[in-house]
Amino acid sequence: MNQVNQVIRVNRVNRVNRQAPSDRCTGDDTTTRTESNGMADQTHVLFVEDDDVIREATQLALERDGFAVTAMPDGLSGLEAFRADRPDIALLDVMVPGLDGVSLCRRIRDESTVPVIMLSARADSIDVVLGLEAGADDYVTKPFDGAVLVARIRAVLRRFGHASGGEKHDEGGAEVAGGMLTFGELEIDTEGMEVRRAGLPVALTPTEMRLLLEFSSAPGTVLSRDKLLERVWDYGWGGDTRVVDVHVQRLRTKIGQDRIETVRGFGYKLKA
Predict the structure, then answer these.
(1) Is 151 helix (H, G, I), strand (E, B) or coil?
(2) Measuring CA to CA, which of 49, 75, 109, 259 is 20 to 30 A from 223?
(3) Could you give the 3-state DSSP secondary structure of residue 133?
(4) Residue where a domain stops, chosen among 108, 133, 161
C-alpha cells in the first residue's frame, strides 16, 4: 500500500513538474490545469500499462492534450489508484502483471460505472470479447496513434456526459407517459435515466443505457451494427462490430434475452 501511494505521489509530482509556471497553483497541493478543446477541468485518466516507454509517452501525450494522468505499471497498483483517486476514465492494457487488465476492468465495474477503454497489442477476438464482457466500453489496438486514442477518450466521455433521453417517441406500440417508455414488463424512464424490469431496478452502465435508448427510440425498426456504432459509440468511420455484439449480449442478460431480436444479415431490433 505504501508503495502504491508512493507511485501515486511520484506521478502527481511529475505532472506538476511538466507544467509551465503559469499553470501552477500553490497552496493545499492543488494543481490547476488549463484544458484544451473544451474539455472539463482536470479530466482525470487512470492509465495502467506495464511497458515503461509506452506508459511514459502516452502519459505525456495525454497531458499535452489537457488530461490529468495517473499512470500505473501493474493491475494491483492500478486498482489501488482507482479506489484512491476515482478517475473520470480508465485506460487498461490487457496484459499487465499482478492483476490482468480484464480482471481489473471487472473489479472496477463491480464498484463503478466509470468508462473503461481496453488497450490490446492484438486484435484477437478473445482479447476484445473478454474485455468487453468484463464491462469495458470500447477498446483500442496497439500500436495506436495518439490522436486516435484521444478521439476515443473524448467520444466515450461525451457519451457518458449526455446519457440524455432526448426526444420522446411514440412508435411501435410503446406506451409513453411523462418520459416513461413501457415495453411489456420493461420500463424506461428517459428523464430520470432509470430502467425497471417487472418493477425491479436494472443497473445499466451509461453505454448500455445509450444503447437501450437508441433501440427504444425506434422499436420494431432494425438498426444495423454500423448505425449503432455511429450513434452510440460516435464512430464516424468503420469500427469493430464486435463491440456492438457484446454490448447487446450484456444488455439482453439484464432486460431479457428475447427483448432484443437479432435480424440475421441486418442487425438488431427492440421488440415492441
Answers:
(1) helix
(2) 109
(3) helix
(4) 161
H/E segment holding residue 29: none
Structural domains of the chain, count: 2
C-alpha cell at 164: 440524455
* CA dihedral of 138, 141, 147, 153, whole degrees rounded to 10: 20
In the prediction, which pLDDT does 41 show?
Answer: 66
For 203-249, the DSSP string reads ---HHHHHHHHHHHTSTT--B-HHHHHHHHS--SS---THHHHHHHH
What is the spatial distance between Cα 168 and Cα 14, in angstroms, rounded to a whole number?
Answer: 48
Same domain, 9 and 95: yes
Kindly report the CA angle at 36 between 30 and 40, in degrees rounded to 5? 60
Question: Within a domain: residue 167?
Answer: no
Kindly state whether residues 207 and 108 are assigned to the same domain: no
Strand positions, DSSP E, 60-179: 68-72, 89-93, 116-120, 138-141, 175-177
Q: Quote the DSSP letter at residue 136.
A: -
Task: Let me know whether 126 and 23 are in one domain.
Answer: yes
Per-residue confidence band for 129, with pLDDT thresholds at 50, 70 and 90:
confident
Cell of 243: 463491440
| For range 144-159, the mean pLDDT | 87
67: containing domain: 2-161
Q: Which residues contact 24 (CB under 8 A, 6 or more apart)?
A: 16, 31, 32
- pTM for the complete prediction? 0.69
Q: C-alpha cell of 155? A: 467520444
